[in-house]
Amino acid sequence: MTKAREQNHQGGCCGSLTNYLTSAKFLLYLGHSLSTWGDRMWHFAVSVFLVELYGNSLLLTAVYGLVVAGSVLVLGAIIGDWVDKNSRLKVAQTALVVQNVSVILCGIILMMVFLHKNELLTMYHGWVLTSCYILIITIANIANLASTATAITIQRDWIVVVAGGDRSKLADMNATVRRIDQLTNILAPMAVGQIMTFGSAVIGCGFISGWNFMSMCVEYFLLWKVYQKTPALAVKALPKIEGAELKQLNLHKETEPKSLEGTHLMGAKDPNIHELEDEQEPSCASQMAEPFRTFRDGWVSYYNQPVFLAGMGLAFLYMTVLGFDCITTGYAYTQGLSGSILSILMGTSAITGIMGTMAFTWLRRKCGLVRTGLISGFAQLSCLILCVISVFMPGSPLDLSVSPFEDIHSRLIQAEPLSTIRPTDIPEIIFTPEMHMSNVSDPATIVPEMSPKSVPIVSVSLLFAGVIAARIGLWSFDLTVTQLLQENVIESERGVINGVQNSMNYLLDLLHFIMVILAPNPEAFGLLVLISVSFVAMGHIMYFRFAQKTLGSKMFACCPEEKEVTNENQTNISVV
């Protein structure tokens, strides 16, 4: 009897594990993991490749960042509208193929440029090489736009349908997706970085192209399996305007003679009625104006959403230099931090980000979704106070009397740029992480493991302590706004609203790039920190106003999620 019970228990556990591993939820996680891993490897590598191609200058990287931000800003609503108007499987598979094929093609072009850079540099006075730069940035931008479409359809739509209207399950799935993001953010760059360190840029390009090809095939299959296991994904709500027109036609049909019944619906035609056969075709001008109308209507609809202020609050958090991007990393190098220390700090930031996802799920259960955003915002701002203090501490290079373009002028008078040197000739300098890069382009000044600067590290230590600690509140707040958008935006507008939200995020990110371009020197970084904290504070003030309008006098009364209603029309999450 005991053995039989143990066998039944083991069989039940194995069966439960098998059911989970074949469930739509797990397959969605697996596909997202593969997609995010490839994205993170590519985003890390393309920045490094562009720096190497232009002689250790950040010019191409900055141009790429501006093009990406500007494209999503302009096309975000149009991409979202395309997501809304097409079937879920078609959108997901099309975006997946376009994204991966673009990365593969870009990787092949980069390989050719790295192998024949000297020859390309001498052809037509360097215009061929410049054309290659433009082509690489253009294709990489197409890959990013396709990635945006994938994120909208999977993370903002599919995940809601798979959750089946269960808000707690949706919150757990959102948190799991963010944990996957955090882990891949640190592990994927480390993996491709090792390949580039011990191999070369050409090997790195080839590896990324091969990975994306294999990943594309697996992800395509996983999307199909998730679609098959979730029948609700096959049913999509009509757009609001089409639904309203259909209701009017149904109402009109009831008052018509019986001979006209059915002639207005589903394109059915009565052979005896000829005046309904000739429908007016849209003019060429109307078709050309359609994207502009979509852009306008998307932004108007976004403004009219009940969660508009919450979305704006999240967007304002993108106007910051207080993150682990190339700008903050470059500043850290100027302050004497080595690559090994930065890698440890990045790993720590990933851990605090995962802690933020855990804090989100706990706070949502205890205090409700809207109040979770308030608590998260307060936690983030409290930690960023350390960054403000760091600006005025010993070791801070803050000096607004220094011209921000002095270093750029010194670059322009250099006689021989580093771009004439093949990256494969100096792999120990280009790819070794334990190195400190100076602000000039002379390769002799770029040496591994330079001796630390004779300046106190109090300032930079406080800066990174604040940035790392603030990520707990940041990711909890991000998840809060994400779920508010999922729950409060009707199904037929999820694509366009989240497309506009991405546009807002990139708009503030674009301003952040412009801000850095106007003040690129380390002496002005303290001013950028103060501006960044100000924008984060404004974002949380907007969210506070949203919470005040939503909860009223009960804003500070902690209550479980089940008792909280985010707006007067709130119902269970719409799946069909």
Automatic annotation (TrEMBL):
Residues spanning the membrane: 58-83, 95-115, 127-146, 307-333, 339-362, 374-393, 455-474, 495-518, 524-546
Entry-linked Pfam families: FPN1
UniProt subcellular location: Basolateral cell membrane; Membrane
Keywords: Cell membrane, Ion transport, Iron, Membrane, Metal-binding, Transmembrane, Transmembrane helix, Transport
Organism domain of life: Eukaryota
CDD domains per the UniProt record, alphabetical: MFS_SLC40A1_like (cd17480)
Chief place of localization: membrane
GO molecular function: iron ion transmembrane transporter activity; metal ion binding; peptide hormone binding
GO cellular component: basolateral plasma membrane
Membrane topology classification: Multi-pass membrane protein
Family of this protein: Belongs to the ferroportin (FP) (TC 2.A.100) family. SLC40A subfamily.
Function: May be involved in iron transport and iron homeostasis.
PANTHER family hit by this protein: SOLUTE CARRIER FAMILY 40 MEMBER, SOLUTE CARRIER FAMILY 40 MEMBER 1
Protein name: Solute carrier family 40 member
Organism: Panthera pardus (Leopard)
Gene name per UniProt: SLC40A1
